[in-house]
Amino acid sequence: MYSVFKKILFSLDPEVAHYTALQSLSMAHQLGISRLQTKTLSQPTTLMGLTFPNPVGLAAGLDKNGDYIDALAALGFGFIEIGTVTPKPQAGNPKPRLFRLTEQEAIINRMGFNNKGIEYVMRRLEKTRYRGILGINIGKNKDTSNENAIDDYLQGYRAFWKFASYITINISSPNTPGLRDLQQSDVLSVLLRALKQEQQFTFSNHKKYIPLVVKISPDLSMQELLSVTTVLLQEKIDGVIATNTTVHRDDVAHSSYAKEIGGLSGKPLQARSTQIITQLHSILQNKIPIIASGGIMDEKSAQEKIQAGAELLQIYSGFIYSGPQLINRILSAI
Ligand SMILES: Cc1cc2nc3c(=O)[nH]c(=O)nc-3n(C[C@H](O)[C@H](O)[C@H](O)COP(=O)(O)O)c2cc1C
């Protein structure tokens, strides 16, 4: 079924295909057709104090505004991460900004945090029926300087703690100038300490502990990874997502899109992303759980992430290339 749908979608401009797919999914969900999907295998996993019905989740960026949560959840994901959401709405980069490297099973995007902003997303979340595990990924607006970035992340936390099972702090998108500099240890400590204080506040005052998860880049050197992990441990961060997209173009040099600026995801990201998980696992020694994202395209790549030390998986490009069936395929293999 997905292979037919995919043929049509892949004949369209990638960004048009993106919204066509989500709109169709939403319509199918409203008509009750999407439930024809075979039921997802149950494989509960408890992590960060949360019980996930299965360990295969949807990565951030597909549903930036929380418009499709119910329809996506019906496909059988163990958890859904929406966002990245910034305080104010922003249009993102000019189009074209999304490229499909079909032969390499990859995507290059420079969307640039196009999203409708906190207020819109809060209204969406009030309407959603989904009661499963929801991650909300927060970031800063493009016109907010790094000096003032903390305020944007605090606004995100304060708006979303009521709705989120966990909150992801995105400091690793390559498409917001300077964002990845927030991974530098001195800046990162200040940012994470402020968010941890906020977490403590909601716990003391509302008896709700919202795990804080940090999403890191695959382009960190070993030295940079060591300093990031030192901060994550010091600040008692609850989880780490490894990884976001890469700015490197290894394995895609011969594609006509190789020179397009943006983050590369999918199969060419697989090995580097798994290597980061291996390094993280050896540094963290199970003190902080690792969520894998980056090139999970099939059963084998999913198994590799788990062998490297990941406890949860997130898919994005694999979902675009293989469709919802990929969830069950992975679950039967891990
Ligand atoms: C079109 C597109 C948009 C994305 N937007 C976001 C985003 O807003 N926030 C974020 O943290 N990651 C974003 N990502 C990164 C994905 O969440 C994921 O980490 C990355 O694509 C690697 O996984 P994959 O190889 O399975 O695609 C985006 C990825 C793509 C392809």
Task: Please describe the topology of this protein.
Blueprint: H1 2-9, H2 14-30, E1 45-47, E2 50-52, E3 56-58, H3 69-73, E4 79-85, E5 98-101, E6 106-109, H4 117-127, E7 133-138, H5 149-160, E8 166-170, H6 185-206, E9 212-216, H7 222-234, E10 239-242, E11 263-266, H8 270-284, E12 290-293, H9 299-308, E13 312-315, H10 317-322, H11 325-333
Parallel strand pairs: 3-4, 3-13, 4-7, 7-8, 8-9, 9-10, 10-12, 12-13
Antiparallel strand pairs: 1-2, 5-6, 6-11
Helix pairs in contact: 5-6, 6-7, 7-8, 8-9, 9-11
The structure holds flavin mononucleotide (FMN).
Quick structural gist:
This protein is α/β, with parallel strands linked by helices. The protein has helices at 2-9, 14-30, 69-73, 117-127, 149-160, 185-206, 222-234, 270-284, 299-308, 317-322, 325-333, and strands at residues 45-47, 50-52, 56-58, 79-85, 98-101, 106-109, 133-138, 166-170, 212-216, 239-242, 263-266, 290-293, 312-315. The chain has a single domain (2-333), classed as Alpha-Beta Barrel (TIM Barrel), CATH 3.20.20.
